[in-house]
Amino acid sequence: MTAALQAQDLAKKYGRRWALRDCTLDIPAGRVVGLVGPNGAGKSTLLKLASGQLAPTSGTVTVLGGPPADPAQLSRIGFVAQDTPTYAGLTVADHLRLGARLNPRWDSALARERIDRLGLDPGRKAGRLSGGERAQLALTLGLAKRPELLILDEPVAALDPLARRDFLRGLMEATAEHELSVLLSSHLVSDLERTCDHLIVLTDSRVRLAGEVDELLATHHRLTGPRRDPGRLPADQHVVSARHTDRQSTLIVRTGGPILDPAWSVGRLTMEDLVLAYMEQAAPAPAPVPAARPALAVLR
User: Fold this and answer.
1) pLDDT band at 291 (very low <50, low <70, confident <90, very high)
2) Among 35, 125, 137, 147, which is most exposed with the fewest C-beta within 10 angstroms?
3) Who has greater pLDDT, 126 or 283?
4) 162: domain CATH number?
5) Which of 42, 24, 13 is nearest to 285 (CA)?
6) Which of 9, 31, 6 lies closest to 20, judged by CA?
7) 283: pLDDT strictly greater than 70
């Protein structure tokens, strides 16, 4: 099966500042991938490189087996930008007609059925929709392209909890029904925990962690015990983070083998624990990211 995304030494530089560097990834198709990291870590840059909106400074990226900027690939990639782009002066129906004109794989029946199920008035202008309704319209446009890979850049960041829940529920239903690969960027780890089976953590413009969620959780542990120098741990136990009091050490380690030292109390991690452990490493100053392409990039 063709990989959803492969990157080798991928990098993007704006002036003197690296927004992304040394990025090597191999994401299998059919996964729902969560992309997380602090502001300025390079998440939006990676997504724009993956959707063909930016060209790399160095390295390579392929999506669904080909270069993402290739016109033949664009119809296979859906993109929903951070501000869930829609045209305020166009009606819901106008957006669907525009999508049909711009996309050779457009599924009119899917778009109409989804708009009806959501209860969106086709004659209502997008500027008069709520934030949640605009997000659902943008998702509908992305899905009706019938992409093989759907890329979403912080699509629920501005939504209230109820609208966010409804958006993610609709996304997961569509993913299962249409067998999509999904790359979802979010600051909200709880959302990723409910939806993702593959995880990428970016910090300081580099990939710090990537892999299947179950495997990552199985190979990371919280160790609590008498205060100890982390450098004295066995070589196969990589220390991700360390906290110490006068008497106690709490470490998060990555290891492929069992923890045999009886002095340690071994605990399991949640995805949030795992993400925060890697994000606690030094964060960079925010890197400038060019504005997205015209508002209906989701439709191209």
Assistant:
1) very low
2) 125
3) 126
4) 3.40.50.300
5) 42
6) 9
7) no
Q: State the pLDDT at residue 224.
A: 97
Whether residues 152 and 27 fall in one domain:
yes
The Cα 64–Cα 46 span in angstroms is: 15
Determine phi and psi for 256, rounding to 5 degrees: -90, -5
- Provide the domain count of the chain: 2
Same domain, yes or no, for 165 and 274?
no
- Verify that 144 and 52 share a domain, yes or no: yes
Cα separation, 42 vs 38, in Å, equals 9
Q: Are strands 198-203 and 181-185 parallel, antiparallel or unpaired?
A: unpaired
> How confident is the prediction for the chain on average, in pLDDT?
90
Buried b (16+ CB within 10 A) or exposed e, 233-256: beeebeebbbeeeeeebbbbbbbe
Residue appearing with tokens 């999508």: 99
The predicted model scores a pTM of: 0.86
Percent of the chain, pLDDT > 90? 75
Residues 6+ apart with CB under 8 A from 230: 239, 242, 249, 251
